[in-house]
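tokens incoming
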């Protein structure tokens, strides 16, 4: 079967197409033929060493986490041959950039809703689950809460806008000028343009700020928070850590950095919103399988509009 594999650590240029034996499922596994995958910043960060500070991680030579496809062989329920599924490969194991992979029922695999294409489903797992967990940190988002989402045009951010609305939030999305119009169609109550300085005049009106870009400081965004508001970001940062260490008792505002920890039921919850038309994937571009490298480079450039998808199997 075809696959994409890195032969060296350090850059992205050693990515090559290779032929590998098709994996054989054991008891408890399903064999999935991959129709599409999506690219996340972690896919190139792991390879380029941008995540070195995390410590000794096992790097898979086959990149990418998110996939969608159908079950070819099922050695375990509830999935059956022919079922459409979407999911996430485990960190440290071979990734999704291959024609077929083995998966296990659990928090990393779910049924794809009938009204959702493989390209759309492939976008969701990592970014969608991250958005859901961020919006439930440090406590579950309550209906009526006022939420600011920074980076609303990115993979995580565009799901976060829709999920926050589905949870009953009042959503203010922050993005750059070229993205204002389409981000507005995601259901945000208000869209602020960081290019034009809309975010430079803070008003402390938010219960939470979800910073999906993580380039600003807590000090910058806390001025938008109510006295008991919470700031959540996706990269561990010194200012967030210090805030937690130095002000645990008296500070009523909170700051958290989170890492995705997939939990049972989350993919199904996202699938339910997709089936109901409340969560959709905006696709920046679909690349053919042989163009995984340009897809990774596009992600690395940092201005994806929604998700970058790579089609692995020809569209049926
Ligand atoms: N902790 C975790 O578990 C976890 C999980 C998923 C992702 N992440 C991290 O979260 C970040 C976002 O992930 P993603 O998948 O959403 O990435 P993405 O799809 O590449 O989106 C990046 C977004 O950042 C915005 N942006 C770029 N430069 C900016 C700037 N200077 N100021 C404001 N916005 C800027 C872009 O919008 P414009 O084009 O409008 O500038 C774009 O919307 C990445 O660093 C990723 O590694 C962490």
């Amino acid at each position: 079967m075809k696959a994409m594999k890195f032969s060296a650590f350090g850059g992205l240029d050693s990515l090559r197409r290779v032929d590998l034996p098709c994996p054989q499922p054991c008891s408890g596994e399903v064999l999935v033929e991959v129709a599409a995958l999506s690219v996340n910043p972690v896919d190139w960060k792991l390879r380029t060493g941008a995540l070195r500070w995390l410590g000794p991680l096992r790097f898979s030579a086959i990149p990418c986490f998110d996939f969608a496809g159908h079950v070819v062989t099922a050695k375990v329920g509830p999935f059956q041959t022919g079922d459409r599924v979407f999911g996430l490969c485990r960190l440290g194991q071979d990734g999704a950039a291959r024609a077929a992979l083995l998966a296990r029922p659990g928090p990393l695999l779910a049924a794809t809703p009938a009204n959702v294409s493989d390209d759309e489903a492939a976008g969701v797992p990592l970014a969608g689950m991250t958005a859901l967990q961020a919006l439930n940190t440090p406590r579950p988002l309550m209906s009526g809460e006022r939420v600011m989402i920074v980076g609303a045009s990115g993979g995580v951010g565009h799901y976060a806008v829709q999920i926050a609305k589905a949870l009953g939030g009042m959503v203010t999305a922050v993005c750059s000028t070229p993205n204002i119009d389409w981000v507005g169609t995601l259901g945000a109550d208000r869209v602020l343009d960081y290019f034009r300085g809309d975010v430079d005049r803070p008003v402390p009106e938010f219960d939470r700020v979800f910073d999906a870009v993580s380039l600003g400081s807590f000090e910058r965004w806390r001025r938008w928070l109510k006295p008991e508001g919470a700031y959540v970001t996706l990269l561990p940062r010194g200012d967030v850590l210090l805030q937690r260490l130095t002000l645990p008792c008296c500070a009523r505002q909170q700051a958290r950095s989170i890492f995705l920890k997939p939990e049972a039921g989350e993919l199904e919850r996202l699938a339910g919103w997709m089936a109901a038309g409340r969560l959709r994937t905006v696709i920046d571009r679909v690349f053919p399988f042989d163009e995984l490298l340009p897809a990774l480079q596009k992600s690395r450039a940092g201005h994806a509009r929604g998700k970058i998808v790579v089609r692995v199997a020809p569209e049926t």
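note: The longest helix spans residues 155-166.
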